[in-house]
Amino acid sequence: MNGDASVAALRGVRLVVVTGKGGVGKTSVAAGIASASARSGLRTVLVTLDTGDTRHPLLDVPLEYQPYQAAPRLSVSRLDALEAVREYVRRNMPFSSLYENIFDGHAFRNFASAAPGFEELMSLGKLYELCTSGEFDRVVFDAPATGHMKLLLDVPGATLRAVHVGPLNHNAGKIQDLLLDGSRTRVVITTLAEEMAVEEAMDLERCCRNDHRMAVGPIVVNRLVPERFSVEEIAALQSMEASTLELREAVAAVVAEHAEQRSQEEALRALSAAGSDVVSVPRIVQACFDPAAFLEALEAHLMPLFGNAA
Amino acid sequence: MSAALKLEGVVADRRIIICCGSGGVGKTTTGAALGVLAAQLGRSALVMTIDPAHRLAQAMGLQALGHEPAEIALEAPGRLSAMMLDTKHTFDRLVEQYAPSGQVRDAIFANEYYRQLSSTLGGSRELVAMERVLEAATEEDYDLLIVDTPPAHHALDFLDAPRRLIDLIDGSLTNSLLKPYGMAARAQFNLFRQSSAVTLKFLERLTGFEMLADLSEFLLAFSSMFDGFKERSHRVMELMRESGTTFLLICAPEEGSLEQVEQFRSRLEKDSLDICGVLVNRVHLMDPRAGDLDDSVLARIASLDVAEPRGAFLAERVAAAYEDRRTMARADAGVMADRLGEDLPVQAVPHFHRDLHSMADLQAFAETVRN
Question: Which residue has the higher pLDDT, B187 or A250?
Answer without folding.
Answer: A250
